[in-house]
Structure formats: structure tokens, C-alpha cells
Design brief:
By secondary structure, this protein is α/β, with parallel strands linked by helices. It has 15 helices and 15 strands. The protein has a 7-stranded mixed β-sheet with strand order 3-5-1-7-10-2-11, sandwiched between helices. A 4-stranded antiparallel β-sheet has the order 12-13-14-15, with helices on one face. Strands 4-6 form a two-stranded parallel sheet. A hairpin with a 5-residue loop joins strand 8 (344-345) and strand 9. The protein is globular.
Length: 520
């Protein structure tokens, strides 16, 4: 484009890898997932142990990540199209993360699920590459309305999955539902979903992320050796339903998988605080309309599927890393491996991310720096303990950090802070606090609050659920030093009165600030 300029020589490239609905279950985080490629990245670079998101939903969280703006600035609280309107509101000086690199002379390209939005032409040299349907089942869609084979309910690789959809649709029709109901209210399709997991005897290209990786590899091979690039690759397999080639399921013994020790809500927590659980629609024909809690057998099936999906994604990351090395680009490329938000894998007896508890908000973040990044101390020379960034970091910090690492000026609209000082001193302090929010979604069975705001410090986590009059109707206070599993709500305990007041003031000051910068 006309505003693209030639980049300075020796600037590092960026490979930005973003997963979908994955908490820090990776081996390098001490989790049960088999993730050798990301473990190797963590060994060679930095693993961020307290990295938090600002919204427990894909679209809003990705908006924070790629715009560098917080939810109260983006005002994106759902997965509806967002970027065109936000660009208009922000004005001429606004830049997304990839757009900022494109304007600095980088080749920019996206593959797979990146913004969770409509295409954003200014960000990319070409439209985002999206995978065509990957299923290999002949006549899979026959006799099924298109609404039932779209969204998350597509790209199955077995006849059995489509047969289950067909059976559920026939049962719905027997109770009076018609195709007109599907067109009028697409949420009806959630009553006729496929299975919660699928392990097909296919190669990596049998599911979407394999095709996305193939396209990204082809693009890498097309680049000249000295061309700086910003390439984002988005993987979807971590989202329900959990589908991956069978060989990734074979990495695990379902019966010996470690389920969480504590599988109950925090004591005294109202039913609505946990939010709706996405897997319910794959086990029932109720959609989200009735209460659901996974049984022991269902929990093991879901954990097996999510871990297999995590390993499948890790294998795709390994293919991309191998190509960088093969082409001699590994030592001039920054690698970011991150997730849009966290996920409850049975903690609190819950499966999903639709709440403001720890496992919804804490995300994996691994950063590997090449030799071309000019730092006073090489990351590769750090001690093993120094490679773990213990301080609090946030999604909005990623944009300014990459600017610093690549020698780019930071746009004025950014609301995070660079993590450069933590990269130079991983054991040093991070931000004082991180903030997140949630509004009810259309599928929440019980809509009790208008908006919830939360603040997390190194030790404490305070949340207010507010009504339409902006009055708190329920409050939570967790103390992770004494209660890492969030078993108790400490808000009414006399000895925590001062802590609760301090946390409330921290949250109120943040909400009242004219701009939402990270707190030091």
C-alpha cells in the first residue's frame, strides 16, 4: 500500500501464534498436555506465569490483544462485527497490531482465526486466509439444513457425527420444530449439535488447523530470506467440540487423566456466577436452557479431547518452527505463542470460560526472542529460573512490547505498557493489578447482573457484579495464598474487611480513570 515504507535493516520478524480457549495446561506450565514444541520455545525464551486477559470471550479478548485497548475503550462485549465501527470511532491515528507493522514496511499476513471479526483490510496485505471445509465425509450435509452444518457444528470427519446431528434434528422436528424456526432463531441449532469430541483416523489436514498450517507454510516459503514479516496464525481446535486426529488422543490414557481436586463452585456462590457451560449443548438437546454439570465420565471425555486438541495445535506450531529453521529465519523471528483467554477444564466442576474466575482469565503466553533483538542481556543467557516471568502481565501489554522489541514507535492509543523491563529482569515485579469485565451473554440461563468488574493483584482477586443502576448485588474476594482453588469467598470475613476495601478502591479508581492504563 502507498503508506508502507521500507523497514530498517535487521529488524526481527514476528510469528504470532494465537490459540482458542486454551488455559495453561501445557507441559512447560506443569500441566498434563503433551506440548514438546511449545515447551522448547519456553526453554529457549520466556514463559509468563501470570498473564491475564480482560474479557473471558474470544471476540472481545482478541480486540484487546490486537488493538492494545481495554474493554471499556473498545466497548466490544460480544462476538458481533466490531472493527469497522471501532476504526471510525478511534479516528485516523488508530492502528491494529499487524497494521502498525505493515505501515513500518513489514509483510503482514493472517491465517485462520485471528480477530474473530470481519476482515480488516488495513491490517493485512491480503485478506486473512480461511480454511475451506475440511471434512472428508461424502454427502455429509445431505438432508441437513445449512444452519445445522455451520459455525462450530461443521467440519466433522466422521459419519457418526453427522448421524447424531441428523437424529437430534429429527427428534426436534417430531416436537414441532421446522426449518423456518432455524432461520428465525439460529440458536435452535444448538439443540441439534454433534458429539462433544471426535477422534478420526485422519492426518493433520483432516481438521481445520492442519489446513491453516499448510497455507502458512506455503506463505513462509514464498518470502525472500531478508523480508521482515508479521504473520499471525490462529488455531481453532481448542474450542468445543474438541476434534483432532486420533493419534493425538492416543497420547493419553483417559482413565488416568488428572481431574481437578476441587470441583465445586466457591462456597456460597450463586448459580449464575459460573456462567453457562458450552459443552452442555453437545451432551443434551436442551441447548443452554436447563442446568447441566458434567459427570465423571463426561469430565474425562472432555479433558481427553481438550488435551488432544492442545497436542494437535502444538504439532502445527512445531511444523511452523521447523520451517523457520529450514529457511534460516528462526534466528531473526520473534515467536509469540498465546491464547485468546483461559478455560476451566473441570475446575469448580465447570467447563468453559463464561465467568470471571481465575481459570477463565489466566492465559498461556510464551515469548521466544531471536539474536536480532538488541537487548542488554540475551534472554538465552538467563538462568532457568530467570526465564519464568512471575509478575502480572496483560493482553494489552503485548502490542507495546512488540513495538519495543522491533524498534517501532508506539501508537498513542495503546493502553498497556511494554513488558521490556520484565523481559530484561524476569524475576522483577510486574504490573500492580490486572482488570477484567463481563456482561451477560444471550445464552446465559440466569441473567442476574448488568456488568461485572474484577481486579486481580498478585495475591487477591475482587469482583463486583452490578445491576442496571450500577449497584453491586454480589461481591467476591479470593485469597490465593491461603486458598489457591477459590474454595471460599472471603468478602464477609471480618479479618478481610481492610483488604476488601483496598481492592474496591483499586477497582473504583480504575473505573473512574479517563483512560484505562495498566497500574504500576
Amino acid at each position: 500500500m502507498s503508506d508502507r515504507r521500507s523497514p530498517e535493516k535487521n529488524r526481527p520478524s514476528v510469528l504470532f501464534l494465537v490459540s482458542h480457549d486454551l488455559g495453561p495446561q501445557h507441559g512447560c506450565y506443569g500441566g498434563p498436555a503433551v506440548t514438546p514444541h511449545q515447551d522448547a520455545l519456553a526453554e529457549q525464551g520466556l514463559r509468563f506465569d501470570r498473564h491475564y486477559v480482560h474479557y473471558p470471550l474470544c471476540g472481545p479478548s482478541r480486540a484487546n490483544l490486537f488493538t492494545g485497548c481495554r474493554p471499556l475503550t473498545t466497548e466490544r462485549f460480544n462476538n458481533q462485527p466490531f472493527m469497522p465501527g471501532f476504526r471510525e470511532r478511534m479516528g485516523e491515528g488508530f492502528r491494529t497490531l499487524p497494521e502498525h507493522f505493515r505501515r513500518a514496511g513489514y509483510r503482514t499476513r493472517g491465517f485462520g482465526l485471528i480477530f474473530h471479526d470481519v476482515d480488516d483490510a488495513p491490517s493485512w496485505e491480503e485478506p486473512i486466509w480461511r480454511a475451506p471445509p475440511q471434512n472428508s465425509v461424502a454427502d455429509a450435509h445431505r438432508y441437513l439444513p445449512p444452519t445445522l452444518t455451520s459455525g462450530d457444528n461443521k467440519d466433522w470427519a466422521t459419519d457418526g457425527a453427522y448421524e447424531l446431528i441428523r437424529e437430534r434434528w429429527q427428534a426436534l422436528q417430531a416436537t414441532g420444530f421446522t426449518e423456518a424456526d432455524l432461520k428465525k432463531n439460529p440458536s435452535v441449532a444448538r439443540k441439534a449439535q454433534g458429539p462433544p469430541v471426535e477422534a478420526a483416523e485422519v492426518d493433520d489436514k483432516g481438521y481445520e488447523d492442519g489446513g491453516v498450517t499448510d497455507a502458512a507454510l506455503e506463505y513462509l516459503r514464498s518470502l525472500a530470506k531478508d523480508e521482515p514479516f508479521f504473520m499471525a496464525v490462529g488455531f481453532v481446535t481448542g474450542h468445543t467440540p474438541f476434534r483432532a486426529p486420533k493419534r493425538y488422543f492416543d497420547l493419553y490414557d483417559r482413565n488416568s487423566l488428572p481431574l481437578p481436586d476441587f470441583r465445586e463452585p466457591p462456597e456460597g456462590s450463586p448459580e449464575w456466577a459460573s456462567g453457562d457451560s458450552e459443552p452442555s449443548q453437545y451432551y443434551t438437546t436442551d441447548g443452554y436452557e436447563l442446568p447441566w454439570k458434567a459427570t465423571e465420565e463426561q469430565s474425562r471425555e472432555l479433558l481427553h479431547g481438550h488435551l488432544a486438541a492442545t497436542s494437535y495445535i502444538d504439532a502445527q506450531i512445531g511444523r511452523l518452527i521447523s520451517e523457520l529453521k529450514e529457511r534460516g529465519r528462526y534466528e531473526d523471528t520473534i515467536v509469540v505463542a498465546i491464547s485468546d483467554h483461559g478455560f476451566h477444564d473441570g475446575q469448580h466442576g465447570y467447563w468453559g470460560k463464561h465467568n470471571l474466575w481465575e481459570h477463565s482469565l489466566r492465559a498461556p503466553f510464551i515469548l521466544r526472542l531471536p539474536r536480532t533483538v538488541p537487548l542488554p542481556r540475551r534472554v538465552g543467557e538467563a538462568t532457568k529460573a530467570g526465564d519464568i516471568v512471575a509478575g502480572i502481565t496483560e493482553h494489552v501489554d503485548v502490542f507495546p512490547t512488540l513495538c519495543d522489541l522491533c524498534g517501532l514507535a508506539k501508537p498513542e492509543h495503546l493502553e498497556g505498557r511494554s513488558m521490556l523491563r520484565q523481559i530484561l529482569d524476569p524475576a522483577g515485579p510486574g504490573g500492580r493489578a490486572t482488570f477484567a469485565h463481563r456482561k451477560h451473554m444471550w445464552h446465559d440461563r440466569i441473567k442476574a447482573y448488568e456488568v461485572a468488574h474484577t481486579v486481580r493483584t498478585e495475591r487477591y482477586h475482587y469482583t463486583e457484579y452490578r445491576n442496571q443502576q450500577d449497584t453491586a448485588i454480589y461481591r467476591e474476594l479470593f485469597d490465593y495464598e491461603n486458598d489457591p482453588d477459590e474454595r471460599l469467598n472471603y468478602i464477609s470475613m471480618e479479618e478481610y474487611r481492610g483488604i476488601a476495601e483496598e481492592m474496591k478502591n483499586l477497582l473504583d479508581d480504575y473505573l473512574a480513570a479517563p483512560r484505562r492504563f495498566s497500574q504500576d
